[in-house]
Amino acid sequence: MKIIAIISFLILTSGYAAFSQEKQNSDTKERNMAVAEKGLIKVTVMYPYAEGKKFDIGYYETKHMPMVAGFLGSNLVKYTIEKGLANGMPNQPLPFAAIGTFYIRNLKDYQSAVGPHRDAIRADFANYTDIVPTILVSEVVR
Amino acid sequence: MKIIAIISFLILTSGYAAFSQEKQNSDTKERNMAVAEKGLIKVTVMYPYAEGKKFDIGYYETKHMPMVAGFLGSNLVKYTIEKGLANGMPNQPLPFAAIGTFYIRNLKDYQSAVGPHRDAIRADFANYTDIVPTILVSEVVR
């Protein structure tokens, strides 16, 4: 009986040790993910809304953004797409029809990755919009 | 020797089982976190850059944004702050000095939470900026 008790104890403690180690890794990972955006550079491509202008968000999501993202390699942390709904001030026009954002580690690598494809990227614009975007480069502070 | 081998085997497999179970939970959690922004509403407060205008990003980060965030309760998923660095187009002026963004679950709850504090929020503007912000309400598509 004693040997069984020892075996059981060893099994339980080794299982718990593995669990608690992995739990700790997972907690650290989550904490890292939560703060991971801080310090990143954002390249935010904003399409100002104007009546009569077109913006095909389906094409933008399934074709254009994945194409550009594909040029960026491991410098790209993530990219997001948002659709403008309203102006936050009452009775004001929608400021932007849509916004696409690349979260990158550094701007230099972004520029040299995108540079050789600039013509292809611009040529694709006509497939989803006739709006000239405003592009903001910013740093995530928080 | 045989009993030792069995013990070792049991310890190893029970440890692995615990590890692999937790690993799976952690993978699922990460996947959920990665897609968690999709469908959220963003209230993006954009401060257009203009020469001679002020923006105290320290005050904005430590006082103003936490104050507003504090009104939003569990409707607030997260908020971010970014500092404008440059225009993405060469030889163009910086479009925005700073941007603050609230990621919320729904706009109605945001409006009714902020409504009673509108005067306090506006009164605090003078403590960090003299820029009139543009506010975009948008939906995270991706």
TrEMBL record, chains A, B:
Keywords: Signal
Top-level taxon of the source organism: Bacteria
Signal peptide (residue range): 1-17
Keyword flag Signal: yes
One GO MF term: oxidoreductase activity
SUPFAM superfamilies documented for this protein: Dimeric alpha+beta barrel (SSF54909)
Family annotation (InterPro entries): Dimeric_a/b-barrel, EthD_dom
Ranges where the EthD domain occurs: 58-130
Pfam family for this entry, one: EthD
PANTHER family: BLR8190 PROTEIN (PTHR40260:SF2)
Name of this chain's protein: EthD family reductase
